[in-house]
Amino acid sequence: MKKKSIFFLLIIIINLLLTIHKTKATEKEYEFDEEKDEEMTEKQRELIRRYEEEQTKQTEEEEEGKIKSSPNMKIQAIMPYNGDLHLKPGNTIRVVVGFLNTGENPFVVHYITGSMLLPDMSRILTNFTPSDYHNTKVMPKEEVSLPYLFYLQEGFEPRNYTIIMSVLYEEFAENRENFTDIFFNSTVIIDDITGSVDLSGVFTYMLLLGGFSYGGFRYYKYTSSKKKSAPSPNLTGKGKNQKINDDDEWLDGNARRRKKQKMKKNTPKNKKDQK
């Protein structure tokens, strides 16, 4: 009966833990995390404002055919920790941007920014915070690598998206000229982190429950074996011991009486009477 009770109790505990974990997982909704935008510092807001002004200026110049990428600047980018382009929401993504100046004049890097769009590029879903590189110089024939970090908000549905990243830089020549390059334009895959957490959570719960169950079984087996090996009370033996004690008391009494009688016989009065 005890083994059956323990087994049913373990089944109930497993079902309860799985239900709680599943409830927590289903409570997570895919909503854009707007709190990150509210937590931005004034410096970041000012940086965004300046970048937007630059973007407006670029757009106007681009419409006039004045802005373009420089043939003397080669730009490449890699995601060292996300080479397969699988991204997890709620994480900071690191991008390394490499600049190679093949010209004769120095360049200055101003800003790097990016956006995430729907796969068909019909709508921008979020803009990443631009990074100001404080006029980092790239001298002629020099290669410079700069890190760009952006935070991928939680709440995006697991599917394919398009990420575009661009850089604003300037050439120091007789006529200073601004350039912009879209150095990253690729499809990325947002992973379903909820599903992976569920599987790992269930596996962890099963391991813990298995350990507790094994420990409980060993403890139950140990206590049962101790109970079986313990000697049971023997009433016959107790009565026998009592009888032995009574016999000892009787012998002691007889010995004392005999000793007294012997002592009386050896008194002077008794010896005189005997003569």
Q: Could you walk me through the main structural features you see in this protein, from its secondary elements to its overall organization?
A:
InterPro entries: TRAP_alpha. With 275 residues, this protein is of the alpha+beta class. Among the domains are: 31-191, Immunoglobulin-like; 238-267. It has helices spanning 2-26, 35-38, 42-63, 193-229, 235-265, 268-274; strands at residues 73-78, 86-87, 91-101, 107-117, 124-127, 131-138, 143-152, 160-171, 177-190. Strands 2, 4, 5, 6, 8 and 9 form a six-stranded mixed β-sheet that branches. The chain has a three-stranded antiparallel β-sheet with strand order 1-3-7, with no helix packed on it. Strand 4 and strand 5 (124-127) form a beta hairpin. The longest helix is centred in the last third of the chain and has 37 residues, at 193-229.
